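Record 1 of the preview.
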Amino acid sequence: MKKQSFPYATLMLDNSLGVALYQQLYQKIREGILSGRFTAKTRLPSSRDLANTLGISRNTVITAFDQLLAEGYLEGRLGAGTYVASVLPEEPLKPLLTEENKDIQNNLQPNISKRGKLISSIRIGIKDRFGIDSGRPKAFQVCLPAYDDFPFELWGKLVAKHWRYPKYDMLSYGDPGGYYLLRQTLAEYLTKARALRCSPEQIIITSGAHHAFDLVARVLFDPGDSIWMEDPGFRGTRAVFESLGVNLINIPVDEEGLNVSEGISRFAKARAAYITPSHQFPLGVTMSLKRRLALLEWAQTYQSWIIEDDYISEFRYSSRPIAALQGLDNIGCVIYIGTFSKVLLPALRIGYIVVPENLIDVFLNAKALSCRYSNPFEQATLADFMINGHFDQHLRRMLKLYRERQETLVKAIKSESEGLIDITYASSGMHLNAWLPSQTNDQEIAQILEEQNIYSVPISACALSTKCRPGLMLGYTSFNTQEIIENANKLIKIIKSKL
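->
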């Protein structure tokens, strides 16, 4: 039987699109896998053969392959080439737009809370009108950016421009969804950098991520509704949901992320699942492609929501940022939440929600009732910051700086702890987990350290039902080399004296 040739024609690239060739190749291979055109265990051509056939550089092919390998779409076999991952489902995902998917999406629309339906019914005329502690960060507080390396002078000039020559629509109440140019810029950025599928109208600007969680809970949940929560997980989100009477079901997290089968076993008909798939908080694992697809299948089966908290996806050191789960959503069940608090400054209070199209109106009403309109001058400044390329430049500088600071912390602890503390490099994030001996009470250690002005988050404090290995979360991004070394030595001495 004649060997079937690889369908190179499906991967032809276009230089006129204004999209990087490696990204085009990545998208075409990814789409081929998800549509079932490239089935599990299919062998891909070598990077050299593919580059020669497509008329592009081999580095372009390697970059696309590396990203697909990192996200779990491909797998490499030593000496045998590159293959489509064997963990993909036997049946390919359904096409993005089918009558069945449209019906499922339409059926999800009424699946909002009683409070959400009330908000949706209120007409208020919106359609016709357009750290933790104060002071310097203390080692080793987590998720704080490098304040001293923020481009304040540039930001100040951009802010001043808008205050000197303000547009009239920025002086009024404005659109509750946010400053439109920022929403448009964000839609373009999220599409390219995070593989989202969204329009500017689907983006609702909020006053930070907590505001976004509050809006989501008020629109989608009634008191007593049950939702899956990662365990261990982020305490801030738990507090928001609990304050609104939501019943939280703790689902364990392992090296592949939230355990979907365990969630189905504990309570299959949960209203929603809250996840941090790109960088799980606090363990730092990335949710596997297999788990992502299983979670989407669960949401489709039970007509449940998925709340994707993508709080820190930009800071990935070993590959490009992992594509968001929302980009795999075919039925409109994923609510995507992002923030600029970590990547820029918490004080900006700019976050956002990306909602399915059929929830735009109810979320606009919810935003209008909660705070009407977030600061337009900060939004306009951020839009300029992104459009003029300053955001990308800042990200590149911070990635280099944070990688260096992470290396400093690891070396400082490894050189002095004599194996007492287990700490390794992380491929992403803004903190490292310092694992302690198995019989250690990490909460007691954290309390002792705090008394000596060293701050850490005990891993066990992030868990409710799951038994965790004792450890401390140590932030490194907001501290210079000298601060990291001095405080790491101090931390090790204190821990040694108490163990």
